[in-house]
């Protein structure tokens, strides 16, 4: 049984109180998450990684919020670095750069590989990835593929990877049973289950439109713009293949 | 073998001279296409539909580009209309509205359904969907699902729905062999083949990284950030299931 508590990631209070061990990754999309939450996530993470153009995004974020000299530098900069500006590399003097040039994998996939040895070393519980779901379709799809690839890793190094945007949190549910706690402020928002990799048999509880041993697939049922039943604190999902879950989150931190 | 000529919807001269009949659907409420391109697509289409918030987007586009009295009204406004502003509906008061609150289908699917009888009436061969990847992952996936459902419904009669953003063009390739004739604007641009929904065995010619009967699947090979080889005029693809193709149409 896998249990997920998104509020532990998206609520400043819980991030501070719970003091979980996590890694934070910044990908190459505009940073639109509330400044206070990003600051909190950055300050409390055990390892901060900016990936290629994400490094530029991070520097812009610091400049736009007068935080240049207030937040610690990234622990690592990774990627093939074809989008990373020289200015960004120059600014982050305390940051180790690991250039990953392999063109067979995306920068995000390679970043999670770089992170692997730190998982046991730092006893990491999960990874938070800052990335808006906008821009190139193939990049959005590639990030989802990275989640699937990560899912295939051994139990020793496979940890949940949460994709966090300004309006949603998305993650892969493994095969079997999962429970997702619904943060209070998210209860009136949307949620979705998307069988990206292939037809998946799914049962749910706690949703407005539940499924009972239903085969979900593209060309058929893909549960988007779903909602919650209004009485449950948890959504329960059972599936025979990993499936992508996404849910709306609110602005309050 | 199916042949695709995206220049008929990407190149302004080609749009005007092409004999191919198409419909336009405006899905999103911020139109980022080059204004002349958008105007040309609209003027030369047989049927124009604005969907819910896309109707606001269309009105904003007209105002921003001083086109209010110059372009024909949409033929239809569709969707559940929960995002459509009262001001917009007042402006387009003479336009036929097909409102649907059915929660089992997204607005895009509903608009294709509304377009169906007009496809027959006007002999439409393709649909151009003006959209954007703007934030909600489930809506992006929902639109991709609509492409699959639409494809399954039409079966042997291929009538592609091209998803057009300001930087890329995406559509579902049917199973079997396809040829994509690469327009000038897309040469040397990035492209991608994405087996959304199921593993697919694929072969290609004309790409920087070609495939040869490779199984594409999530958790394995998904060909993103590929490129159209600089020598290529025609990309050839063969797949055992429909597969999602995307290509850049201008520099990012």
What descriptors fit this protein?
heterodimer; A: 253 residues; alpha/beta; Rossmann fold; Jelly Rolls; 2 domains; 10-stranded mixed sheet; 5-stranded mixed sheet; 7 helices; globular; B: 252 residues; 29% strand; kinase (chain B); thiamine binding (chain B)
In words, what does this structure look like?
The complex is a heterodimer of chains A (253) and B (252). With 253 residues, chain A is an alpha/beta fold. Chain A has two domains: 7-166, 3-Layer(aba) Sandwich (Rossmann fold); 167-253, Jelly Rolls. Helix content of chain A is 27%, strand content 28%. Chain A contains seven helices and 15 strands. Chain A has helices at residues 7-10, 12-18, 35-44, 54-64, 86-91, 107-121, 137-151, and strands spanning 2-4, 22-26, 47-51, 76-79, 96-99, 126-130, 161-164, 168-173, 176-181, 191-194, 200-205, 214-216, 223-226, 234-239, 243-248. In chain A, strands 5-4-3-2-6-7-8-15-10-13 form a ten-stranded mixed β-sheet, with helices on both faces. A five-stranded mixed β-sheet of chain A has the order 1-9-14-11-12, with no helix packed on it. The longest helix of chain A is centred in the middle third of the chain and has 15 residues, at 107-121. Chain A is globular, with a radius of gyration of 18 Å. Chain B is of the alpha/beta class and 252 residues long. Chain B has two domains: 7-166, Rossmann fold (3-Layer(aba) Sandwich), CATH 3.40.50.10240; 168-252, Jelly Rolls, CATH 2.60.120.320. Chain B has seven helices and 15 strands. Chain B has helices spanning 7-10, 12-17, 35-44, 53-64, 86-91, 107-122, 137-154; strands at 2-4, 22-26, 47-51, 76-79, 96-99, 126-130, 161-164, 168-173, 176-181, 190-194, 200-205, 214-216, 223-227, 234-239, 243-248. The model of chain B has no long low-confidence stretch (mean pLDDT 94). The interface between A and B is large, with 44 and 43 residues.
